[in-house]
From TrEMBL:
It comes from Fusarium oligoseptatum. It comes from the Eukaryota. Pfam families: S-methyl_trans. The keyword tRNA-binding does not apply. PANTHER family: HOMOCYSTEINE S-METHYLTRANSFERASE-LIKE ISOFORM 1, ZGC:172121. Residues 1-308 form the Hcy-binding domain. This is Hcy-binding domain-containing protein.
């Protein structure tokens, strides 16, 4: 019988820094995605490390990829930044690199972060956005335009197995991202997961909303008829998982009992996996006072009903 637990790759940005001595700064607004432009060979080596574990699912290096991030990237080849029409070429490379890194042994998932992940300093741990992107409607518009970049990748729906909507700090953005994905034909039929984070001392999202409201937004069929394959938690301390998972499980059980959900989604978990190190989003260095950038992946897998 196939395993009901799948292993996901780890924190790409952290691995690039610690093993390959890659550093990120304000001159690299694409973060890990910058290597698609500057050093795809090193990126493939790092992702191949995960493939050699082996993992069952590998995320593409596209978490922070955005139109503005590419426009603000200056290189010798692109001294004035990279225009929208060129971006799909690099996203195509991201999928190719991930595919080569795992070969036939694993699946590739499209990594897609929130608006806050594309800011400098990043704001996915706070959910505090500028006025132009501070509502469900404006966030949906922004995500529709950004997802259009991925839709222009040749045969993307056949080359990736899942779309990962990750590290979402706000309930209105969970809704906006689900709506935007449903409105992107090249991606809308793919299985996807949504994951939120709870970085503070309380059991809540960065925007102050409850975990219950986040789970409801992830699964509400009125938001999108395409309910996610999985829901989960990332970029959150391991010692908070038990309490958070109890909320996840009770909320899903209630939705099923109320007839608002038909089946249990898969449970996707990739909490922070450091030894106390955290990432400072302002200095863009690993330290001990704040959390680090990007998903720190450990494991993904079984549905909540099977947790026992």
């Amino acid at each position: 019988m196939p395993s009901k637990i799948l292993i996901l790759d780890g924190g790409l940005g952290t691995s690039l820094e610690s093993k390959y001595s890659i550093s990120f700064s304000r001159s690299t607004p694409l973060w890990s995605s910058h290597l698609l432009i500057s050093d795809p060979t090193t990126l493939e080596s790092c992702q191949s490390d995960f493939g050699a574990v082996p993992v069952d699912v590998l995320l593409t290096a596209t978490y922070q990829a955005s139109i503005k991030g590419f426009a603000d990237t200056r290189t010798e080849e692109f001294p004035d930044g990279i225009g929208r029409e060129i971006i799909p070429r690099f996203l195509d490379d991201a999928v190719n690199i991930a595919q080569r890194a795992v070969g036939e042994n694993a699946k590739v998932a499209l990594s897609y972060g929130p608006y806050g992940a594309c800011l400098i300093p990043s704001q996915e741990y706070s959910g505090k956005y500028d006025d132009a992107h501070d509502s469900e409607s404006t966030l949906e518009e922004w995500h529709r335009e950004r997802l259009g970049l991925f839709a222009d990748v040749p045969d993307v729906g056949k080359r990736v197995s899942h779309v990962a909507l990750e590290t979402i700090p706000r309930v209105d953005e969970i809704i906006a991202m689900r709506k935007a994905l449903a409105a992107t034909p090249a991606l809308s039929d793919l299985p996807y997961w949504t994951s939120c984070l709870s970085p503070g001392a309380d059991l809540a999202l960065p925007d102050g909303n409850s975990i219950e409201s986040a789970v409801e937004a992830m699964l509400d069929r009125d938001v999108s008829p395409n309910t996610p394959w999985g829901i989960g938690i990332n970029c959150t301390k391991v010692d908070k998982l038990d309490s958070l998972l109890q909320i996840f499980e009770s909320t899903v059980a209630r939705l099923i009992e109320q007839g608002r959900l038909d089946t249990w989604p898969a449970l996707v978990l990739y909490p922070d996996g450091t030894n106390g190190e955290v990432y400072n989003t302002t200095t863009q260095k690993v330290g001990t006072t704040r959390r680090r950038q990007g998903p720190g992946a450990l494991i993904m897998g079984v549905s909540s009903r099977e947790r026992g």
